[in-house]
């Protein structure tokens, strides 16, 4: 089966790929921080772990976003649900990792925890929606 990506999917995929170097920069920063080369930043041990977690989750979620974008147009999901799948994993990367970074630097802890949980829910919802869409595309309903 061959298919082409729709214009919205190609655009969001391009923006997602463009955002990946920011995760690389975060890795460079964390390495320099761990080596003591960023003296103006001071994190607690928990803050350091949260910063590492935020960095790792951002990278993983953006890779999941790329995979989801490559698959979403192969589904027969309604357009609204396709948009949820297109935007969900990338939004989850911003919410979850942003919340972890805010917790690491002790900025608005209540809102940061809420962002982490919202990101987890958005990611789970969009991936489950994609899975259902792929399943339904390979197993058509009796009426179709």
Q: Name the shape in a single word.
A: elongated
Number of domains: 1
On the 0 to 100 scale, the average pLDDT is 92
Query: What is the name of the CATH class?
Result: Mainly Alpha
Percent range for β-strand residues: under 5%
Descriptive notes:
This protein has 144 residues and is mostly helical. It has a single domain (7-138), classed as Four Helix Bundle (Hemerythrin (Met), subunit A) (Up-down Bundle). It is built from 4 helices and no strands. α1 (7-34) packs antiparallel against α2, α2 runs parallel beside α4 (109-138) and α3 packs antiparallel against α4.
Key phrases:
about 140 residues, mainly alpha, Four Helix Bundle (Hemerythrin (Met), subunit A), 4 helices
List the helices and strands and how they pair.
Elements: H1 7-34, H2 45-72, H3 79-104, H4 109-138
Quick rundown:
The protein is an all-alpha fold and 144 residues long. It has helices at residues 7-34, 45-72, 79-104, 109-138. The model has no long low-confidence stretch (mean pLDDT 92).
């Amino acid at each position: 089966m061959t298919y082409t990506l729709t214009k919205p999917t190609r655009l969001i995929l391009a923006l997602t790929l463009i955002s990946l170097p920011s995760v690389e920069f975060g890795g460079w920063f964390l390495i320099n921080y761990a080596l003591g080369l960023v003296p103006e930043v001071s994190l607690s041990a928990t803050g350091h772990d949260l910063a590492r977690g935020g960095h790792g989750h951002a990278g993983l979620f953006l890779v999941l976003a790329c995979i989801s974008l490559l698959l979403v147009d192969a589904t027969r999901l309604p357009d609204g649900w396709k948009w949820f799948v297109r935007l969900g994993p990338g939004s989850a990367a911003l919410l979850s990792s942003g919340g972890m970074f805010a917790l690491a630097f002790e900025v608005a802890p209540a809102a940061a925890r809420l962002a982490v949980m919202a990101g987890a829910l958005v990611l789970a919802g969009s991936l489950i929606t994609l899975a259902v869409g792929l399943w339904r595309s390979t197993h058509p309903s009796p009426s179709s």
